[in-house]
Design goal:
- The complex is a heterotetramer, with one copy of chain A, one copy of chain B and two copies of chain C.
- Chain A is an alpha+beta fold.
- Chain A contains 25 helices and 26 strands.
- Chain A folds into two domains: 350 residues, PurM-like C-terminal domain (Phosphoribosyl-aminoimidazole Synthetase, Chain A, domain 2, Alpha-Beta Complex), CATH 3.90.650; 203 residues, Phosphoribosyl-aminoimidazole Synthetase, Chain A, domain 2 (Alpha-Beta Complex), CATH 3.90.650.
- In chain A, the strands form four sheets. In chain A, strands 8-10-7-11-9-12-13 form a seven-stranded mixed sheet. In chain A, strands 21-23-20-24-22-25-26 form a seven-stranded mixed sheet.
- In chain A, helix 7 links the parallel strand 4 and strand 5.
- Chain B has a single domain, classed as Class I glutamine amidotransferase (GATase) domain (Rossmann fold), CATH 3.40.50.
- Chain B has a nine-stranded mixed sheet with strand order 2-1-3-4-11-10-9-6-7, sandwiched between helices. Chain B has a two-stranded antiparallel ribbon with strand order 5-8.
- Chain C is of the alpha+beta class.
- Chain C has a three-stranded antiparallel sheet.
- Chain C is built from two helices and three strands.
- Chain C is 29% helix and 36% strand.
- Classes of the chains: A alpha+beta, B alpha/beta, C alpha+beta.
- At the C-D interface, strand 1, helix 1, strand 2 and helix 2 of C face strand 1, helix 1, strand 2 and helix 2 of D.
- Bound molecules: adenosine-5'-diphosphate and magnesium ion.
Amino acid sequence: MIFSLTRNELLAIENGMKREPNDVELAIFDAQWSEHCSYKSSRTLLSLLPTRGKRVILGPGYDAGILDIDNNQIITIHIESHNHPSAIDPYGGAATGVGGVLRDILGVGTRPIAILDSLRFGDIEKSSHSRWLFKNVVRGIADYGNCVGVPTIGGEVEFDESYERNCLVDVVCLGLGRRKEVVLAEASHPGDILILVGGRTGRDGIHGSSFASRDLASGSDERSAVQIPDPLTKKIILEATLKAHSNGYVRGLKDLGGGGLACALLEIADKGRSGLDVDLSRIHVREDGMSPAEILISESQERMLFVVKDEFKGEVSAIFRRYHIQYSIIGKVTGSRRLVVRVNEAKVADVPVDLAARAPLQLWPSKRPKYLDSEGSIEKPPLPRNINETVIRVISSPNLASKKWVYEQFDYDVGLHTVLKPGDSGASVLRITNDKFIAISLDGRPNHCYRNPRQGAMSTVAEAARNTIAVGAEPIALVDHLQFGNPSDPEVFWTLSESIKGIAAYCRFFDLPCVGGKVSFYNEDADTNRAIKPTPVIAVLGLLKGARQIRSRKLTRNGRMIVLVGLTENELGGSEYYRYIHEISGGIPPKLDFDRERGAQRLVGDAVRVGLLDAIDDCSSGGLIAAISKMCIAGRIGAHIELEKILSDCKRWDDLLFSESQSRFVVTLDPDNYQGLANIAKNHQIPCSVIGNVEGNKLMLTNNGDEIFSEDVYTLEKTSNDKIPSIMGH
Amino acid sequence: MDKLKVAIVQFPGTNCDRDTYHILNDVLKADVQVIWHEDLRMDAFDSAVIPGGFSYGDNLRAGVIAAYSPALGQLRKAGEDGKPILGICNGFQILVESGLLPGALLRNSGLRFVCRWVNVRVEAGNSLFTKFSENGTILKMPIAHNEGRYYAEDDLLASLERNGQIIFKYVDEGGQPSEPSNPNGSVSNIAGVSNHDGNIVGLMPHPERASESLLSPFRTTHGLQIFTSMLRSVEVLLKR
Amino acid sequence: MAGLPRFRIDVFITNKPAIRDPEGESILEDLAILNGFESVKSIRTGKVLAMEIEAENVEIAKSKVIEMCDSLRLYNPVVSSCSVRVAGG
Amino acid sequence: MAGLPRFRIDVFITNKPAIRDPEGESILEDLAILNGFESVKSIRTGKVLAMEIEAENVEIAKSKVIEMCDSLRLYNPVVSSCSVRVAGG
Ligand SMILES: Nc1ncnc2c1ncn2[C@@H]1O[C@H](COP(=O)(O)OP(=O)(O)O)[C@@H](O)[C@H]1O
Ligand SMILES: [Mg+2]
């Protein structure tokens, strides 16, 4: 067996154990002290994130964050990635990624009710490898989520060459439950018994988590990291688990993910301040001759660990038998603070829980990257000659084009929750009751983070928050996923630490708690050794009361006034326009001014509450023109925009249309409501400009009366819808 | 009079059972129960719905493994007794695989799972499941399936047409069963069929997802027509 | 009952010639021909079930599998045909 | 170029032996065994692509097909293995 423990870690183990560990013990430490399970490189930084809030029942540290949404109802949320497995087996990797995050939500005793996915690939227009990854990742997510019956309600897809050999596959899952029924990954009562439930334990995924913690290039043992999805078994386990749980039989629950049984056992013992005594020979295995270490670190899918009061073991077993699920009673909880592992009663490992559960911190040097010096200020690209053509190219670029090809492969309606469906708006909206709704948006802005990770990370949070506000909700919490290259590279580590500081600053200013997240390192190109762009991905969760408050980006009727909230500045660095049309990755990205952002958010929130607004969209990637064309397409109705009315210091039409300045919304309203909006805007000291009207079936731009752009909404829609299918072959 | 009883049959992998229950129980206030397939005894029920999902993970072919469940024996008998039976999506696939409905359902011609709101035209109004819809009524409902391409050989197709067994077709906004409005390559745009006697119906679209205006992009509740018609038909049958 | 020999029997399930095979068509047209494999003239896709079965002899093994194909509808006779082959050749 | 003979080559794609096949397991347990075919001990599923290809001779036909499967990624070598057989036997 290959271990990735360092010399210092080995020393720490020997010191802690006061003897040399045997191979089985080493395997346990190796799994638990992997980056993936221990967060040894990021723990200190992560502690900067504010995690408390009035709705937070449980923040980071468990399988899922738990939020109170009133009337005894709770929402649970978690985010996971499966980047490395997906890079070698996009179908199975993505599918088992969904399986993993579903287990986390199930692990706190809640029913998964929605999935969102955030995907990043290389340039699908140029690379057949990226097309292959994209196609199979989407199919993997679809086949898994659809079969289990959890709707995939939203997400994002971005193409950028920095992900060519290291795609990013992030999945968020939401769960719904009752406050009284929360169960935790804890074994806190000596005498309780441990039941391992679900699929047989085999050799698959052995070294999966240390695999994710090493560079993809050195993954010599790739094959064993392949995990095979089995959504049918997951669905059955899910129903059985919720059934056992609803009957009150379950005292602790833990999903088996990275690091397998070893990490699951250590975690429940650590959280429960107890010890465990288990016998591996009782486990139902798939193949003969597996060593104790292999059984402990196997990452076979579809398994859960139950902690059950001894007197209920009959009842719980009966539920598993009824659903034809295999299970093994593998041991019991003790008071010893030790994890004792046996095979046929003979002790094969005996490790102190406190030692094993806390990997020593790994400190890395940090240095501002060189590339930031060279690309800071750039020459303005030449003004494109053909406005129509340029605008259409940008808004139908693969990054901005409709993602229908993706989300139509997902069952987004199952469960009867989905009010705003994928494609309807920047955030999706779920019905919890007929007057309580959840909004969620998942976003990443690596092109901004690449230029300025702190600003970029803040803008990413702001964008996700604005998306939930644009559908009428109030943000209540976020989860983050931090995806970077090799942390031992000081430049990579600097971008990580800047990103976390950016997120933390936003959370503090806006009093928005972070209730969970994930860190993924070693995301780099095996051929060039280049790290991906720094990619924090943020999901913001919002709460919305009253069905009438739900807004979407859909333009509704002729004669509505179109208002731009906020200021459009000359901020093109890291924009989709620069990237796609001019192939420029440099420039200074938009800055986020917290006061202005708060003003804009409150303005829209207040206006929605008093019923002034009709359609709303946030202005982000692709700038103002992308927002307006999406609004037209969604409503299948035209608009006339008068450029001279836009409040801005931009001199050129391309800057004006494509600037990605933060803190902006496009809203439409009945002209009679304008005075009301103006008053609210004044309260919050936010500029608003009336920039046009909803009318006809064309999107038309004029500048002081001269028409500079005009296109049929039908044509815009078709161009946008056809883009990805035409690249993907059908 | 005793309220009529509806069974919702649940197989391993069924995933629309709770949704269908919600509409029948909470919205329509029917007397309805979700029954694990091994426990189904149709003596106790007047009607049954096989909801959507992925019974047995769609392994081998959608619906084929469930077709061998003892529940299908119960449903066959109930069908012979004239009790209304509705198969939705995977339920339709199970009814076809077990021979309770004619034809076959093949993999979508687009080779991908398709989730989309479509227009469905009622071809046989005033049937047990379409009592409240005239011929030609257009219902907005979503589909979500991988294997929904309805297939029947020419002879069978002709006899289905003759007997009025084609209940639903996919159509465009103008109500025509056009090529672009056919989401999966079904022969003659067929979205749902019945058995010879008309008391067993299967369809690929999901009426339970189209029964509450909040969840419909068009604020419609067209799916309710199918369920209310089914409930009403059972009442009529019971009175006889 | 112990000690019966094991045989490997493969079951092939393919669409009948009259039934379209969109997957085969798509592999042929969107992949093979587009990428220069013009000498490929047709592709039809199907499914294999590779089984291990215990039986007195290979003939019995084969006939058991055939019986299973028909009675459990491992293939749908309306649209597919099925053939059975002793593996290891 | 006209007049090259045609060959039928079958391509089999299956999960590698060490890799699980949940579909096969489910067909075995939920269908075969439950319905009385207990002598079946294992089922593994796979995919067949039956191709017709023009080539100078059968060896060239075979190697063309192999080249195509690899370069068009008709299977993922990390998960599956692929074998090729001249059909008609
Ligand atoms: N970037 C992050 N920000 C905040 N919390 C994080 C972050 N990354 C991980 N965490 C928290 O650390 C805990 C352990 O994460 P994870 O490894 O996903 O859990 P598990 O091992 O149970 O699957 C979780 O509660 C998670 O929310
Ligand atoms: Mg986890």
